[in-house]
Amino acid sequence: xxxxxxxxLAGGSLSAAAPTALPVVDLGYELxxxxxxxxxxxxxxxxxxxxxxxxxxxxxxxxxPPSTNGTKIFNDxxxxxxxFQAVPAWTAYTADWVVNGTAAFNISAGYQVPPxxxxxxxxxxxxxxxxxxxxxxxxxxxxxxxxxQGAPV
Length: 153
Prior knowledge:
Helix content: 10-25%
Number of domains: 2
Strand content: 15-25%
Largest sheet: 4 strands, mixed
Number of strands: 9
Number of helices: 3
Low-confidence stretches: 1-12, 14-19
Oligomer: single chain
Mean pLDDT: 76
Radius of gyration: 23 Å
């Protein structure tokens, strides 16, 4: 992961078609195009894969480098990557308890206990493949990459 950040900061293979074009970093297995946060003056490289998908024998193993099968995927960070999140069923009750106290559970006033078996719907973008990171690089640092000392990581 540190090598990836260093590659992004050090320039690696960079390209920009025109002065207004956003930079693209070639990591060997994927091409990543940045988005520019103009108010913060930084580039954001979103959803950068740093390990092969954790499937099969890799499911509960340490991350291994992504495959470099020759086909480079273009990634501009627009595809949502969401890791599964655990939300216990009782969280639905806690907000009511905090706001209304014990009055929230007044059974004599007709309070009905919601079924604990009901779970919230799953996020359609959720996946077990969470080996992604976002790298934010100040615009000035990125544009002077490879010209001098570099920048601390």
